[in-house]
# Entry
Amino acid sequence: MRVVVADDVMIVRAGLIRLLIDAGVTVAGEAADSDELLRLVALEKPDVAVVDIRMPPTHKDEGLVAARLIRERYPRTGVLLLSQYLAPRYAERLLEDQPGGLGYLLKERVSDLAILIDALERVNSGQCVVDPAIVARLIDRERHGSPVGTLSPRERETLSLMAQGRSNAAIAHQLGIGERTVESVCAQLFRKLDLQPDPDVNRRVLAVLTLLRT
# Structure
């Protein structure tokens, strides 16, 4: 896997690059701002761009804007966004536009190399990944009038793992149940979230979006 890394803080960028190299990932380049990142992606065509959301000049959402442009211009390049803060609205905005090949992790998660590499691999394969801490907070939050509040504990567990990019097989392994049971649970939670079968939409992504909006 070839990646590029964008973060305006040099020590953070260098540390992330070292972790990736130690894990056997090829780092094709690094950038300190969104303009440099876009030039780098155009030149290197990496498998995944690892991008800090808050970058110069305003340190607001330049990384998010760059992520959208990357997905529009280079659909084969996935984007893994890193954020210092729990901000579900960023994940929601990304998934609404281009749900495949996108990930959103908290920066504190980077120190767990297994989680980082797993997220990169999932994003590279076209999946969407949302940080477990964000998912857990949203799942536990009170939701008066939200369809998510109608889900059973098992359905909430399944939705949580779904939001983390887990396949049905991985969910079954995590919960200690069969894949057919997972399929049944997914069908039930889709019904509760009023997500009807449609060949043109991905109900798993829509379920995650429903969670992020609550």
Notes: The first helix runs from residue 10 to 22. Residues 100 and 126 are 5 Å apart (CA to CA). The chain has two domains: 2-130, 135-213.
